[in-house]
Amino acid sequence: MKQVKQLLRYPVVLVFFLFLFGYTLFDLTQTDREYSEFENKYLAQKPPFTMKAFLNNEWTQDYEEYINDQFVLRDDWITLKSVCESMLLKIENNGIAYGEDGYMFEKFTTLSGDQRAQYDRNLGYAMTFLNNHQNDNVTFAIIPNAYAIMPEKLPAGLEQIDQLGLIQEAYAQAPESAGIVDFSGTLTEHKDEYIYYRTDHHWTTLGAYYAYAQLMQQLGQEPVALSGLDGKTVENFYGTYFSKAKKFDAQADTITYYEIPDAGVTIDGKEQDGYYDFSKFEVRDKYAAFLRGNNGYTVIKSGVRTVEEEQEPSRILIIKDSYANSFAPFLLCNYDEVHIVDPRYLAGSLSQLINEGGFDEILLMYNFSNLVTDTNLYKLGY
Amino acid sequence: MVFSSILFLFRFMPAAFAIYYLVPKRFKNFTLLVLSLIFYSWGEAKYFPVMIASIVVDYTASGLIESHRDNKLICRLGLIYSVVFNLGMLGFFKYTNFFVGNLNALFGLSLPTISFVLPLGISFYTFQTMSYTIDVYLGKVKAERNIIDFGAFVVLFPQLIAGPIVRYTDINRELKERQINLPQIQDGIKLFILGLGSKVLIANNVGALWTEIEAIGAGEGFLSISTPLAWMAVFAYSLQIYFDFSGYSLMAIGLGKMLGFEFPKNFDFPYISRSFTEFWRRWHMTLGSWFREYLYIPLGGNRVSKSRLYFNLFVVWAATGFWHGASWNFIFWGLFFFVFLVIERMGFKQVLERHSAFSHVYVIFFLLLSWALFAVTDLGMLGDLFTRMFVPVGGVDWIYYLRNYIVVFILGTVLSTPALKGLYLRLEKNNVFCLVFFGAIFLASTAYLVDATYNPFLYFRF
């Protein structure tokens, strides 16, 4: 009793240890989570102990990551940090800078040696691909990031690398046989419209539509009019930039999608019911609804076009990253079959697929940032 | 393990203190030894034998000296045994690659370098154990006969990896007999939280700026940034290293108090110094006094001829620089201070004392340069950075960074002076204030650690 009375005279000691022991026990009794909706990432799980991993310091590192990822009320702690950051008047968090009108941008102030090397390698793979397929009607496109199209939305003084310049340099390396479709002009023309998400790195479906229209015109086809399509919207989209920055007062995005009828969807050999995964519109990672996320090989048959008997259907192949997921559906209005390959997840050989596919057009389309980071483009040569 | 981690705060710390407070007094040192070895071995398991060897060597060396007081030769051999072992370990783990690299460059050789990481805190604990044996040799203190008590001193976890350099004579009485009482624990908790906040809320926050600019320096080169941004980056680094290092020391001192130990102070508002002589009495004080006691004075100190004095200073400052890292820029960094300390000794100090404003500008200006020298290990990049700092180039890149960091800059600047010290000491007496203030810092620090993308450990080179 005397000791308790004494302890009450030192409330800092009392409260500190009560919190420390209490919270630790609270943390220990919680069950582990698999996935964080809030951060859109898989959380570290308890690493299995092996003596070898322990001596190499791998196990201890994994264990620390596990403790961090599974720390109870993790999402709330992250929000608390975000509140503190805004009290410090910070205009960025975890590499995401806050621009005008609620726009977030990934900081891209320099190409490090490793990044430059990866970019050069990736461009090399792309050029090899263009050279290997000179007679296959290949069109090449690099999609710029939002900041390159709307630099005025960047926070003042944030000097990002000159994507548009680098994209032009890349195009200049392409062989004459390859078509080039440069979206930067079109996107810049429409930059006052909602063509990029504020909280996500992708372009919006509207941005993708303008790019589609330009591609069609360049290929001598008539793009479908947006007004003739049935657009639906999904509110409260918080994208990848949000997942990194976790800005507590971020402005949500709206996703628009068009249900252009299909006549069958096959993903990696399995038939699917439609090319949208509507369940994803209900969760945080809404962009994954498009084309049901990133998959190796997707084939969509158009439900708006009628193929005459005994006539070979028209086919387009897109070799792409996730930017094409909201872009591809529009092509159903112009081609009987839209084939989509994401080299990151493709199991088989790409050249075999092209040789056997009978494609009228091939589009090789990548976002600039992905060209800097992707490590799977070597598959373009196989 | 580092203090600024969720693992330490919400696993090690509650477990360690619960056990430590609950075991009976006679087992407390043994408990501390075991807890400290676990702390050390976490992530450094393969260096566990190194740590044990460190304890055993200095224990036997000092025991040998103590039991053969009359035999000068054996005493000397005991001392040499300890010094050779400690410096040998430090030399092998920390400096092998430096010497191999330089030999290769000089003679066009291709000797292989070793590829393992530096054992955590080796620069600190080798100095501590070595100075202990020297003290025993000099008869300043009796050798510790109890290997558990001695082991507990060597691996005492609060000060093990980043200082302060606690000498045996600082805590030998507490090792044997210490009172663990609530006022001391309360002080300890406060200091620990202040240290945690310094490291996590200020140092990490402002350090992100330097790290980002350093990445540009390594990519496109420092010449691609504007002059104001170059200065801002170096300023940010100056704040980072101070709050990081002094934060670690504060956490160590706080944890020490919570265990019943009084560690020596390590930082005393160094940035308000008016000369470099004063700066080194306020910055990493335990390192400065270590070099004074165990290198400068044995060399003859200042009771020698002028030329010998300058030689002594040269040796001490080259060694101080080299202690901070095995690379030329650290040696230059040490010698940079040598130059200023000599100039001040030759009479410049009197000038500084007369001109208050000038002396502050002088210290801050050259300190910034010294931190640039400290931060950039690549001499080519360092040249670019100095070029950009002194050959003015405009630009707007600094606007963004100033906007982003302005509050942290102001906070860091104010807190690196004693401006708020008086206010703090008055408020600190109020329990309600303490609960709110320390609670807020602790919760905010935890939040930053949970969402940590940038939480570097700067002393991996030490």
From TrEMBL, chain A:
<protein>
    <recommendedName>
        <fullName>DHHW protein</fullName>
    </recommendedName>
</protein>
<keyword id="KW-0812">Transmembrane</keyword>
<feature type="transmembrane region" description="Helical">
    <location>
        <begin position="7"/>
        <end position="26"/>
    </location>
</feature>
<dbReference type="InterPro" id="IPR025945">
    <property type="entry name" value="DHHW"/>
</dbReference>
<keyword id="KW-1133">Transmembrane helix</keyword>
<dbReference type="Pfam" id="PF14286">
    <property type="entry name" value="DHHW"/>
</dbReference>
<keyword id="KW-0472">Membrane</keyword>
UniProtKB/TrEMBL annotation, chain B:
<feature type="transmembrane region" description="Helical">
    <location>
        <begin position="330"/>
        <end position="348"/>
    </location>
</feature>
<feature type="transmembrane region" description="Helical">
    <location>
        <begin position="147"/>
        <end position="168"/>
    </location>
</feature>
<keyword id="KW-0012">Acyltransferase</keyword>
<keyword id="KW-0812">Transmembrane</keyword>
<feature type="transmembrane region" description="Helical">
    <location>
        <begin position="6"/>
        <end position="23"/>
    </location>
</feature>
<dbReference type="InterPro" id="IPR028362">
    <property type="entry name" value="AlgI"/>
</dbReference>
<comment type="similarity">
    <text>Belongs to the membrane-bound acyltransferase family.</text>
</comment>
<dbReference type="InterPro" id="IPR051085">
    <property type="entry name" value="MB_O-acyltransferase"/>
</dbReference>
<dbReference type="InterPro" id="IPR004299">
    <property type="entry name" value="MBOAT_fam"/>
</dbReference>
<protein>
    <submittedName>
        <fullName>MBOAT family protein</fullName>
    </submittedName>
</protein>
<feature type="transmembrane region" description="Helical">
    <location>
        <begin position="73"/>
        <end position="93"/>
    </location>
</feature>
<keyword id="KW-0472">Membrane</keyword>
<dbReference type="Pfam" id="PF03062">
    <property type="entry name" value="MBOAT"/>
</dbReference>
<feature type="transmembrane region" description="Helical">
    <location>
        <begin position="222"/>
        <end position="243"/>
    </location>
</feature>
<dbReference type="InterPro" id="IPR024194">
    <property type="entry name" value="Ac/AlaTfrase_AlgI/DltB"/>
</dbReference>
<feature type="transmembrane region" description="Helical">
    <location>
        <begin position="30"/>
        <end position="53"/>
    </location>
</feature>
<feature type="transmembrane region" description="Helical">
    <location>
        <begin position="402"/>
        <end position="420"/>
    </location>
</feature>
<keyword id="KW-0808">Transferase</keyword>
<feature type="transmembrane region" description="Helical">
    <location>
        <begin position="360"/>
        <end position="382"/>
    </location>
</feature>
<keyword id="KW-1133">Transmembrane helix</keyword>
<feature type="transmembrane region" description="Helical">
    <location>
        <begin position="432"/>
        <end position="450"/>
    </location>
</feature>
<keyword id="KW-1003">Cell membrane</keyword>
